[in-house]
Fold each of these.
Amino acid sequence: MAFGHDMAQTSLGDHLRRIRDGLLSSRRFQRLAAAFLLTRPIARRRAADLFDLCAGFVYSQVLVVCVRLRLFQQLRPGPLTAAALAARASIPPDAMGVLLEAAAALRLLERREERYGLGPLGAAILGNPGIAAMVEHHAALYADLSDPVAFLREDACGCRLSSYWPYATGDAVGLTREAVSPYTALMSASQPMVAEMVLGAYSFRKHRCLLDIGGGDGSFLVSVSQVAPKLELKLLDLPEVAAIARDKLCTAGLASRATVIGGDFLKTPLPQGADVISLIRVVHDHDDEVVLDLFTRIRNALPPDGALVIGEPMSASRGGADALSAYFALYLLAMGSGRPRSFVALQRLLSRSGFSDVRDRPTRIPLIASVIVARR
Ligand SMILES: C[S@@+](CC[C@H](N)C(=O)[O-])C[C@H]1O[C@@H](n2cnc3c(N)ncnc32)[C@H](O)[C@@H]1O
C-alpha cells in the first residue's frame, strides 16, 4: 500500500472511474471531444466551468467594487455614462471603463449604447439589500483565505471571521453590544429573504405560541406576526442581542404580543408554553454535540403535539458535494464552529434527540433556505 491507495479494496466503480479520469486528463481525448460535434457542447461546458473556477475570485472582486461604490443604487434612477460614474467615484475613466465592462460581462450591469444601466443580477441585488451586506462582510473571510493552505493547516489563521461571529468560539453570554451589533445587523438585513422561504414552506397560523431560539433582532418574528396575527411570540437570544430585539419588537408595535428572553440556549431554561419552536440559521453554526444538546432541550420543552421548524441553507441530501456545501464548509471552518448539513444529517441528529417524525418542506429557493419540520 502506498499513499493510502489500498489496491485490495479497489471496486469496479473505482476501476471505471480511473478509466474515466485517464480519458479526461488526456490531451488527445480533450482535443477529440472538442472536435467531435456531439461531444463539443460537453467539452465547451467543462472548459467554461474550469475557467469560472480559476477566475471566480476576480468575479467576486468586481462585485465587491460595485457594492462598495454603490453603483447599483446610483443606476436605480436610470443609466449613466462611464465618465459620470468615474467622476462620482474618483476613479480614472479608463479604469472605470474596465470595471463597467467586466460588470456588464457578469450581468451585474448592462451596456446601453454609451451608457450603463442595471443588469439582471445587479437589479436583483438592489431588491435584496441583504446580498450587498453579505458581500461586504466577506472581506473578513477573504482575508482569512488569502493563504488557503496555511488556513487549512491552522498555522496562519487570520481569524477575522471568527472575531466577527464571537459566539462561535468564546463566551457567548458575556458578549458586549459592540461585539454582537455587526452580525446582528447583517442577519437583520438578510432575514427577509429567509423569512419568505420559511413562511412559504410552513404555516404558523395553526399554532398558539412560537418561540424563536437564536432569533436575532426579532426580524423573523416580525415577518411571522404579519401572516399569523393571533400567534403569541417569544424570542431567546444572547442578552445583548435580546436587548436589540426588545427595541425592534416594540417599534414594530408587538410589545404586547412578544416576550424576549436574554440567555444561553444551552443553559437558560427554555420558556414554557410554545407549541412551535423555530431555529432559523442557527443549527449550521454549531458542532454536533451542541446541536444534539439543543435539540434535546427543545424536544423536552415542546408539548406532545408541538413542532420544531428548522430553516437554513442545507447541503444536497444524497451525499452530493454541491457549491453551497463548498462555500459553507470553508465559511464555518473560518468562523470556528459548525458545518453545513444535509436533510439526512439533520434527520439523524433529530432522531437521536428523540424526534420521531421528521420531514422536509420544499422551499422556492433552497439556496436561501430549506425547511425541516420535526415532531416528537
Ligand atoms: C446566524 S444568527 C441567526 C439569527 C436569526 N435567527 C436570523 O436568521 O436572522 C445566530 C443567532 O444565534 C444566537 N446565538 C448563538 N449562540 C447562542 C447561545 N448560546 N444562546 C443564545 N443565542 C445564541 C446569536 O446571537 C445569533 O443571533
Note: Residues 167, 172, 187, 191, 194, 214-216, 219-220, 237-238, 241, 264-266, 280-282, 285 surround S-adenosylmethionine (CB under 6 Å).
Amino acid sequence: MLCKKQRIKVKTIAIERIKRLFEMADYMFHINSELSHRYVELARRIAMRCKVRIPRELRRKFCHRCYRFLRPGVNCRVRLVKRREPHIAITCLECGNVMRLNLEGLKREGER
Ligand SMILES: [Zn+2]
C-alpha cells in the first residue's frame, strides 16, 4: 500500500504522461492518425489505472464515445451555439457524437 506522499507522486507522473501522450497524438495526427487514436487510448488507460482525471484542456481533444483523437476541421466540427445557454458543440465526425462545453466553465478556466 502506498502512503499519501507516494500516491501524489504517482498521480503527478501519470498526469505528465497523459499530457505527453496527447502532445504526441497531436504531432502524429497528420502522419498516422491511427497512432494518435492509440495514444488517446493509452492516456485513458493511465488515467483509469492511476485514478486521475484527464486535464480539462485535454478532455475536449478526444471523443468521449469512440475515444478517437479530434482535430477541428479534420474529424470534428466545432460550433458556437448562442441559443439558450451559450455553449460550444463539438461533433465527432467519426461516430457523430456531440459534446457540449459550457462557456461559463471555459471563462472561469481562462481567469485562473
Ligand atoms: Zn466519436
Note: Strands lie at 76-81, 87-92, 98-102.
